[in-house]
Amino acid sequence: MASLTAAEETVLSHTFGDGLTRAADALAEMTGHQIIVAAPSVRLCSASDVIAMAGGPEAIVVGIYLGIGGSLKGHALLMLPPVGAHHLARILIDGVAEPADDDDLVDPLVFDPLATSALQEVGNVMISAFLNELGMHLAEPVMPSVPQAIVEMAGAILDAVLVDLSMEGDRLLAARAAFIDGDRAIEGTLLVLPRPESLGTLLEVVGVDRL
Which domain holds residue 95? Predict the structure, then answer.
């Protein structure tokens, strides 16, 4: 599979956009804040392209990972810059509209157990809501695994996932979107990486015929 046709990209972008909107609504209900999701970019790309989307292999990020089972098999990652992750964790834990200044963070790479748990729940709510939207097009439910959160270089987080997918193909479907809370942009990246056979199934059920 060398590329997506214009029709495939349009349909998938619309489907992924609906899923991200649903995910943003779920997060807004969870935090009490209206979350805006920037238009997603959906494309078929290489493993190196996916790592570049996350800011490069040495960029330190907070990654919330869920495996995907059922009709759509693969992986999902919500990746956030550490300061943005602290922002979301504070909102969820404290329920405040104006979190503390970033300068108050002694070490933005350190998350206490409560903040880690909050971020895992953010990832779970967002990715699950997104997958539920995709699951509406599939015959069987889409089943995410228990979320795992880790602070690490983007390349290290993505390595095992990309190796697993590359065993079956060297082209990956990636969707990216930025999340905005009020006047603050949280440059998060949501990667949904289905296995090649699952991508074919998804294209079929959303009404795109491959030639």
Answer: 6-205
